[in-house]
Amino acid sequence: xxxxxxxxxxxxxxxxxxxxxxxxxxxxxxxxxxxxxxxxxxxxxxxxxxxxxxxxxxxxxxxxxxxxxxxxxxxxxxxxxxxxxxxxxxxxxxxxxxxxxxxxxxxxxxxxxxxxxxxxxxxxxxxxxxxxxxxxxxxxxxxxxxxxxxxxxxxxxxxxxxxxxxxxxxxxxxxxxxxxxxxxxxxxxxxxxxxxxxxxxxxxxxxxxxxxxxxxxxxxxxxxxxxxxxxxxxxxxxxxxxxxxxxxxxxxxxxxxxxxxxxxxxxxxxxxxxxxxxxxxxxxxxxxxxxxxxxxxxxxxxxxxxxxxxxxxxxxxxxxxxxxxxxxxxxxxxxxx
Length: 337
Prior knowledge:
Elements: H1 2-11, H2 16-25, E1 29-35, H3 41-48, E2 54-57, E3 67-72, H4 78-89, E4 94-98, H5 101-106, H6 115-122, E5 126-128, H7 131-139, H8 143-154, H9 166-171, H10 178-201, H11 206-217, H12 219-229, H13 231-249, H14 253-260, H15 262-278, H16 292-303, H17 310-330
Parallel strand pairs: 1-2, 1-3, 3-4, 4-5
Helix pairs in contact: 1-2, 1-15, 2-13, 3-7, 7-10, 7-11, 8-10, 10-11, 13-14, 13-15, 15-17, 16-17
């Protein structure tokens, strides 16, 4: 990544202006989590906030936002579509999250089934997620919770007491106090508790149980959606950093050398490719040496389009330049030896 190349370069230099450019370029993506009361907005924000490279807020709109994640459950209301539309009108890419997906899975329903319908209603991509399972997977459970889960797993009837209702679990005859069972339900829900108990009965380790919770939570698909939605913001930061570096290069030849070297040019191309693929101009042929030159020619033509704005002209130029460097590297003497 360009920010990594720049960070390594700046780390080798005792140059405060250069360090400031690197710091600004590496700022985390600013993600605002919004949604109606009761949809689990703060739980989703807590889970997403564990991911590197993003900064998550769940409070009132403060303006400085790169991506909006809008949380809903079960039904989409007109106010949901209005809020997402307002984000789009303000130039903020939005992703909707259908939270509490564990409730659908508890009844053996596919939480993804309604996402296409919801996406059409709100005008944004929709991903299912269980914030509860994601937080449990990412934060982990304490020793008392694991001990309680093991006790339920080992008890006669432990496999059947979680029959789909919290009441049945709380009323079951188990060697686990009722208040401890309530804490399990608060942290895992009925589905997460049943899933964890079943995994422990199969002698899975806590690490594998957490991995299972994470996979079924859907958090990784949401994080990928945020990465796609934030591609333009990240690329704009690259362009700003390059402009600042070009100003520094006027008086510092090492900065000019950094901008010209292959790794930097290819890293700029990678940021441009992320943007191109995010807006549906890809996927681009990746590491195939035979694709580098045709890709350079194709993006050079694209960059000459009359209707193209400055952002996508820069994107096309970076992909063209990076592709030519890769082609040159692949065809350098000794490259195939």
